[in-house]
Design goal:
Rossmann fold, Oxidized Rhodanese, domain 1, single chain, 30% helix, five-stranded parallel sheet, alpha/beta, 251 residues
Length: 251
């Protein structure tokens, strides 16, 4: 959307939400920075959690959307000062707003001094997605590559040789965890494979995340890299808390 707006010379009235926070701005390359001035590249495919995994406070789309509508009306009638060059941050937990100043990036690949993007590109390839799977869609794993939290608990009680891999982010890991698990976020997993047990006699790797989506992607990645003894913990940490350890905090 940003690239199309820059190429057409139109403003991009932007809004986004995540958990209890929202953002809004107007990215208009004719008078300030565009979206790529902030984020020139997308995050690794699969790193961004879905709404079900990350969670979104239900009223936030309305708040962010209303701000976007206000900015759009102001642009149409030519009144007031738009959010161009500013990023509005909304914290619903503390009911606070603050504004950050944004600057145009001279090296921006589409609105910079020497742009390299001069036409729309293959965005599915750029973002690491395919039409069949969609953004962040977890792969479907065969039953033999899955295990339940009850099976994990039983194997821990028996002291079976297992290695529990948590592919969430550190802030999630700090809230709750399966005892004895090792944290390697999904976005870092591909370059940290040497930290995982592998080879004859190595323990089986059991992978989990919040609900099972990111861990399914991790299992697929590990299988492609030659790890044969690896399973996805279905339901993730939320299933563990619901059915094994309700004393832990949920998020």
């Amino acid at each position: 959307m940003n690239d199309a707006c820059v190429l057409l010379g139109k403003p991009n009235v932007y809004g986004s939400i995540f958990r209890f926070d929202g953002q809004a701005s107007v990215f208009d390359a004719r008078q300030g920075p565009c979206y790529r001035c902030l984020y020139s590249e997308p995050p690794p495919a699969g790193l961004v959690p879905s709404c079900a995994e990350g969670g979104v406070l239900g009223v936030l789309p309305g708040i962010s959307g209303t701000i976007q509508a206000t900015e759009a009306i102001k642009l149409i009638i030519g009144a007031g000062q738009s959010l161009a060059g500013r990023l509005l941050l909304f914290d619903a937990l503390h009911m606070s707003f603050r504004t950050l100043k944004l600057r145009r990036e001279p090296a921006c690949p589409i609105c910079g001094d020497h742009p390299t993007i001069k036409a729309l590109i293959d965005y599915e390839q750029f973002c690491g997605i395919t039409p069949a799977t969609g953004v962040g869609a977890p792969p479907t794993l065969p039953r033999e590559l899955e295990t339940t939290v009850e099976e994990v608990k039983a194997r821990l009680d028996r002291h079976d040789p297992i290695w529990i891999l948590d592919v969430r982010e550190k802030n999630e890991f700090d809230i709750c965890r399966i005892p004895g698990s090792t944290l390697i976020p999904l976005g870092e997993l591909a370059r940290r494979l040497d930290e995982l047990p592998q080879g004859p006699g190595s323990p089986e790797i059991l992978v989990h995340c919040k609900m099972g989506g990111r861990s399914a992607k991790a299992v697929k990645l590990l299988r492609e890299q030659g790890f044969t003894r690896v399973k996805n913990v279905t339901g993730g940490i939320l299933a563990w808390i619901d059915r094994i350890d309700p004393s832990q905090a949920k998020y």
